[in-house]
Structures are given as C-alpha cells and as structure tokens.
Specification:
globular; 8-stranded parallel β-barrel; 306 residues; homodimer
Chain lengths: 306, 306
Amino acid sequence: MRNTGIGEAEVTIREVGPRDGLQGERPLPTGERASLVLGLARAGCRRIEAASFVSEKAVPAMAGGGDVIRAAKAGFAAGEAPRARLTGLVPNLRGATAAIEAGCDELSVTVAASATYNEKNVRRTIEESVSEIAAICRQAADAALPVDAVVSCAFGSPYEGEEIAPVFVAELAARLVGHGCQAITLADTTGLANPPVLEQVVTALNSALPGADLGLHLHETRGTALLNAYVALELGVRRFDTALGGLGGSPFAQGAGGNLSTEDFVSFLESIGMTSGIDLAGILELAARLRLLVGHDIASKVRANP
Amino acid sequence: MRNTGIGEAEVTIREVGPRDGLQGERPLPTGERASLVLGLARAGCRRIEAASFVSEKAVPAMAGGGDVIRAAKAGFAAGEAPRARLTGLVPNLRGATAAIEAGCDELSVTVAASATYNEKNVRRTIEESVSEIAAICRQAADAALPVDAVVSCAFGSPYEGEEIAPVFVAELAARLVGHGCQAITLADTTGLANPPVLEQVVTALNSALPGADLGLHLHETRGTALLNAYVALELGVRRFDTALGGLGGSPFAQGAGGNLSTEDFVSFLESIGMTSGIDLAGILELAARLRLLVGHDIASKVRANP
C-alpha cells in the first residue's frame, strides 16, 4: 500500500495559524492578525485559514474575523504580499454569510465522525451538522466559493467505548461531497492517529471517493503529527493543514494538542526532497516573531539561526 | 526494504535520562539522580544509562557518577526497584576504571563519524578515539563487562561541506566491533536523520555487520525523532535510547536538541501493538515529577491524566 510517491510532486500546505493557532491565545487586535496573514503569504503560504466566523462570545480571540479578511485583502491589493487563498471557518449559515461578505476565497466547515464529540462540541447530531453543511454549500455555490469539509475525530474518538469505523468516515465524507463540498480534510482532533489507522481511513476514503481532494489536519497531542504526516505522504496524501509554531490548543497545558508545525513540516519536506513553495528561512523568521506576538515559547523544534 | 516487522517482537529501550537528560541541567544531588534511576526501574526500564564518568569540571551536572551507580545498586539490593542494567558513559580509560569500580553493568563509549565534530568535541582524531576505545574494551573484557559504542553524527555532519558516507559509518562500526564492542548505537547528534538517510545507513551497517546488536539514539533538533524511530522500526531496528521528558540539550534554547521522549515513544509503541516492558502510566507519573525536579517544563507531549 505504501510508497505511492515520496520524493515526487509538491505538497499543498494550508496555514491555519491565524485561525486554529490563535483561537486559544489571548485575543490579538485584528490588525496584528491580518499582519500575520500577510507575513505568511510573504513566506510563500498560498493557502491560509485566516479567520473563524464563530460567536465572539464563545471564542473571543476570533472576534472581528471579517476585519482580518478585509485587511489582509487590502494588503494583497496594495502589493504588501503575494495574493493567497483565504479560508474562513464557518460553523453555520450565519457565519457563512459573514465569511462570504468579508471576501473569503474558501469556506471551511466541520462535522465530527464521533457522535458524542459532535454533540458536545456544537450541540448537534451528526445529521443536523450534515444538513447545516448542505445549506452552507448551497449558499457558497451561489457565491461561487468552494467548501472544504473538515471531518474531526476521523482517526478515533476521545470517548471511551466509542469506535470510529473507517468506512463510516468514508461514507460521511462521500455524503458531504454529495452535498457540494469540493474537498475533504480529515482531522486527528485528539491525536489518536497512528500508521495502521491512517492507512485504513485513507484507503477507505480513497475507495469511496477516488480522486478526491483529500487533506489531513494533524494534532500533536501524542507527539505523532509529523510521523503521521510522513505516513500520509507515503499513502499519497498531498495536502496538509499546519500552523506556525505548532500553535493550537495550548501545547504545554494538560491534555492539549498543538498543530503540526509549519516550519518543522517544511524543513522535513525539504530534507526528503519534496517542496511546499514555503520559504524555510522566511517562515522561521516569522515563527521567531510569533513568540513575541503570543507572549510565550512555542512547541516547534526547527529554529532560525540554530 | 521496509516492513521488516512492525507489530512483531519487543523493543528494547535504554533510558538515558539520568545521563544525557540531566547533563545539561543544573546539577542535582547524587541521591536525587539515584532516585530517578530507581523510579525508572520501577516503571519498567530494564536498561538505564545512569551516569557519565567525565571530568566534573567539564560537566558539573554529572559529578559523582560513581555515587549514583552505588546508590542505585543499593536500592536494587534493598528491593526498592527491580534490578536494571546500568550503563556508565566513559570518555577514556580513567573513566572506564571509575565506572568499573562503581559497579556499572555496561560501558558506553563514543566516537563521531564526523572528523571535525570529534576533534571539536573530544580534541582527538577519529583514529585516536578508536585506539582509546580499543584500550577501554580490553579493560572492560578483564572485568567481563560489555561495551556499547555510540557513533555520533552517524546520519550527517553539522559542519558545512563535510559529508558522512554511510559506508564510512558502517566500516567504523565494524572496526569498533573488531576491537571488542558488543553493540553499536548510531546517534543522530544534530537531528539530521531522515527516512532515506536512515535507510542508507542502517542498510550499510546491516551488510557490514549482519546480526549486530544495533541501536539508535535520536535527537529532536528538527522534531523528527519519533518519525525516525518509526522508520527504523520498519527497517527492523529494535533498540533505542530515549530520555524521560525528552530531556537532553535544552529543548527551548536556540539550536538545542532534546532526546526522543521515553513516554511519547512508549505511547506510540503501544498504539501500534508493540511492547517495551515500560508501564506508560508509571513513566508518565515519573515525567510529571521530572518537571518539578528540573524546575521547568519538558518537551514531551503525552501527559498523565490528559
């Protein structure tokens, strides 16, 4: 099953630092967040999850998402950075309306493959989430925007006794594509993926949706994000969500995760002769600035001027 | 070349926390270091690098290595923990004498595959280091102690322009075995290993020394330690050095490394159905205590009670 092609082709990275990375930090001004988006674009990131259109009460650090998108796009227009495709995470139709109005280039929606997690996280059944996503897809289609569906808990449930069958993940993904999602991103929400589980889920997905635009969103809960990314590369996956500094959750708090670090992943890809279009020196410089921005050390390992 | 056997057999871990982990920390009393050795043994570590017999002036944190070994062995004799095999790192004949007198069960010696690194690190040519190791092996043989040779920089040189040929690493290892070393441990001193390089070096070593007792000592400089350990497992390697908390060097300082974390590796092995004999809950509890012992957070990801 392996060796679909390490060493060939380019890897697509969607930088989720401004959204997944910053959402658990102390709230930063929208101007700082837009500057980060522009910095990422200057370092070669061509796809950036720049904002989340969730309730400001629920996630204060994501308040003003529309302003972030508008400021970043103004920066692109002024030639401050090469134009990147900006994604907005939307939890519902209202968020989708706001994201479309703000000028997002892609919408990102989520549903968990774990019924318990979905209910605890968004107080909906999986069916209710799928219906909402279908409605968002119709709205996005009217605006000619693509929708990426992130299936969380795709590699295991954090709830004891709940099994996540790979075929269930694949069927859920197929239904989302049927409703109009252009891409599927499988998220390892609590870091339960490992090589055999990854192979089962990716294989199930490839047979349910041959040729699908498949990405992975890997968390560091158990220190396995880069290892799982490598196994996924071996399985032929070519799209990954990563976050500057490995930010996301709180890497040093109990039970927390952190995302696959952009700089560690870019460094690894370079070491095995694969390319991402992201400049390692540029992204390392930005990571050094990120530490000052968030006010604490970060979990990524590769550093500028080692 | 892959799939020599993930999922079969047991993996041997040599816990190097009390030596490689603590050597860069503020000096701890020998009693605390012996307690750590006993705690590791209680958590199921059966091989522990417990002390270094280097100059106390050069590495103050390793002062009193003989006392650590003697106190740990007294603890074993008193039934405080199951008996573990204790390794002492020795840089020269004088260190070997001290390690043997202290009651070490194994000696560990090092030579770099990088001529520049060897000269900067121990002010010797590779040939001078090999001669010293040969003399140490003769002394160890008189005491009926096995010697493990750690070949540092085995996967690349940190010095620009210096190439480390896999066949050179294999020939160096073969000479060390010829001088009486019972085991070879390849060290990724500055985190330069990656899957293709690992495969080349392990393959070269296996053909120079078929059936050799081969281990890996992996550093986290680029966040790749666990990934490289997985690739090595696929290549059939079954022995690894790991350190509690991923200690070693200073994970949060510029250019620093950190070792493959014992608890993250044990957790990963469990997730893919391999065993190490180390109790995950026990080692996580010890890691939580390690943070208090060293007075700062640690880089490992898997935590107790997440």
